[in-house]
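dumping this here so i dont lose it
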């Protein structure tokens, strides 16, 4: 079996993951990690959070907006809500989210955008509490 222990990118990925999703979310994910998904958690921390999100070519706000569009278009609703909540840390505004979902309607389909708008409205309302 291959050694998949966290590598050098793990720490920078974890710092970025915490800055975007917040300590509470990352702490919950870490607490719920088992032997079964440990390698997967390492993979997403090193690849998504270190290689992609830690790169400074795009801002966190821009990456947040792209991620929301992709998750909405692909119908990944649970991840969509999580990344909408993360906008509190990335600087993407409710107006940014609305505009991204307008793009999804044209390029990803009205049904996908319609569902995403419902999720965004519920998630943003919950963030105001």
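and the seq i came up w/
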């Amino acid at each position: 079996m291959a050694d998949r222990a966290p590598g050098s990118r793990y720490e920078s990925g974890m710092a970025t993951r915490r800055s975007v999703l917040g300590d509470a979310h990352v702490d919950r994910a870490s607490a719920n990690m088992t032997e079964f998904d440990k390698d997967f958690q390492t993979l997403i921390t090193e690849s998504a959070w270190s290689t992609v999100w830690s790169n400074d070519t795009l801002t966190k706000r821009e990456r947040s907006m792209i991620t929301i569009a992709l998750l909405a278009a692909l119908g990944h609703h649970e991840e969509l809500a999580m990344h909408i909540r993360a906008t509190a840390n990335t600087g993407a505004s409710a107006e940014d989210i609305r505009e991204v979902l307008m793009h999804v309607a044209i390029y990803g389909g009205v049904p996908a955008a319609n569902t995403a708008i419902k999720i965004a409205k519920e998630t943003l309302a919950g963030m105001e509490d």
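The two ends are 47 Å apart (CA to CA).
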